[in-house]
Design a protein that fits this description.
Blueprint: E1 11-13, H1 15-24, E2 28-34, H2 41-51, E3 56-59, H3 61-68, E4 76-80, H4 88-97, E5 103-107, H5 113-126, E6 130-134, H6 143-148, E7 158-161, H7 164-173, E8 177-187, E9 197-201, H8 210-215, E10 218-221, H9 233-246
Parallel strand pairs: 2-3, 5-6, 5-9, 6-7, 8-9, 8-10
Antiparallel strand pairs: 1-4, 2-4
Length: about 250
């Protein structure tokens, strides 16, 4: 009888496989532990993950059963990135190799994997050179992100940083202008975007964090003519990315 396939290709299940993934330095988004499992080697795995600042999430055993598919998970699994993360320097190198001014998308706490995948897809189509996301409170490069990006993830460098604020400071030191997408800003159609542009897109519900907004040189807004006052993050980001692309 044909063995049931594992449901998600970003899941490593089982105590030994998870231990080896931690040892190898593979990019791990989170460790998933079945509720009530705190015995034997699981304790050591959790300790190693905490040293690497990897989030630990307790989940129902049924969820682990689903995620692991045919694999015996032994009460633990790791959700890994489907692609190795790049660095900010890699993104600048990508722009330099193409002979273009850098165009970078910075995501502040985009937590929905479908939104992240859609943003990656649009960024690749609009000619962005890379995307920057924070380590915490952000969707990572999961199977869902890969699928939603429709192949764009293979071509788009994604860097993960500890602190968005300090990263924006460093981008400005390298000659970039930072534009934040948020309410109560300048009409995006009236903004002259600089050749070297970083566009900050905020959280789906809360927008850009106040400290991040302070790092932006300009806040830009999309005019709202309907009865609601906000757009989906990936939709708003797509409109702004193509506006920036049209002026490059």
């Amino acid at each position: 009888m044909e063995e049931k396939k594992q449901e998600h290709n970003d899941i490593i299940a089982g105590r030994n496989p998870v231990t080896e993934a931690l040892r190898s330095g593979r990019a791990i988004e989170a460790i998933l532990v079945a509720k009530g499992e705190r015995n034997g080697s699981i304790v050591a795995i959790i300790a190693k993950a905490k040293k690497k600042n990897i989030p630990i999430k307790e989940v129902d055993r049924k969820k682990l059963d689903f995620l692991a598919g045919a694999v015996s998970h032994q009460g633990i699994a790791a959700r890994c990135a489907v692609k190795q993360y790049s660095t900010v320097d890699d993104i600048f190198s990508n722009a330099e190799e193409k002979g273009e001014n850098p165009f970078i998308i910075v995501l502040d706490r985009i937590e929905d994997a479908h939104n992240l995948g859609a943003i990656i897809r649009t960024a690749e189509c609009a000619g962005a050179h890379g995307i920057i996301i924070p380590e915490r409170r952000s969707a990572g490069l999961s199977y869902t992100v890969e699928k939603t990006s429709a192949g764009a993830l293979e071509y788009m460098p994604v860097a993960r940083v500890k602190n968005i604020n300090s990263t924006l400071e460093k981008l400005k030191e390298r000659g970039m202008w930072v534009y934040g997408a948020d309410m109560n800003g300048e009409d995006y159609k009236k903004v002259d975007f600089a050749p070297a542009t970083a566009l900050v897109i905020g959280n789906e519900g809360r927008g850009i964090a106040p400290l991040v907004a302070k790092q932006c040189d300009v806040i830009v807004s999309l005019p709202m003519k309907g009865k609601i006052n906000s757009l989906n993050a990936s939709v708003a980001g797509g409109i702004l990315m193509y506006e920036i692309a049209s002026k490059r």
